Amino acid sequence: MTVKGRGKKKLRQGTVVSDKMKKTLVVDVERSYRHPRYAKVIRAISRCYVHDEKGEAHQGDIIRIVECRPLSKLKRWRMLEIVKKGRGLQDRTKSEEEVRELHEELREDSAEALPATEEAQDTAQDEVKINSEYPDSDKA
């Protein structure tokens, strides 16, 4: 993909971390390199502020960005395209009906558990009564 303009522009691909601002995305661009002395592969993450004019990208999307002139104090990148749509937060949220059903199930489970605890308390009280009537029965 070529970008019109003067000279070569840097192209990067990253994951949208935040889309809470208007027309601005926060993107993590990951790169890995080998340490010069120890030869361990190191993963470095750069955080870029990206201009998204149409507001198309959302959290979790993988997008391609291109370097541009400074648009604000932190924004130096523009979004070119969405490479892959992410799942985002929309899939993780539950509807009100699902939440109500979960609460009802929890209430039913707790209501079923209550009689069992009352029976356990009754047997414990009976044991205390027996022990108080026959104090030497434990030593036998």
The number of strands is: 5
Number of domains: 2
- The CATH architecture of the largest domain would be Beta Barrel
Shape: elongated
Tally of separate helices = 1
Q: What is the beta-strand fraction?
A: 35-45%
Helix and strand layout, with pairings?
Elements lengths: L10 E11 L2 E11 L6 E11 L10 E6 L7 E10 L11 H38 L7
Parallel strand pairs: 3-5
Antiparallel strand pairs: 1-2, 1-4, 2-3, 4-5
Task: Explain what you see.
- Strand 1 and strand 2 (24-34) form a beta hairpin.
- This protein folds into 2 domains: 11-84, Nucleic acid-binding proteins (OB fold (Dihydrolipoamide Acetyltransferase, E2P)); 96-133.
- The protein has 140 residues and is α+β, with helices and mostly antiparallel strands.
- It is built from 1 helix and 5 strands.
- It has a 5-stranded mixed barrel with strand order 1-2-3-5-4.
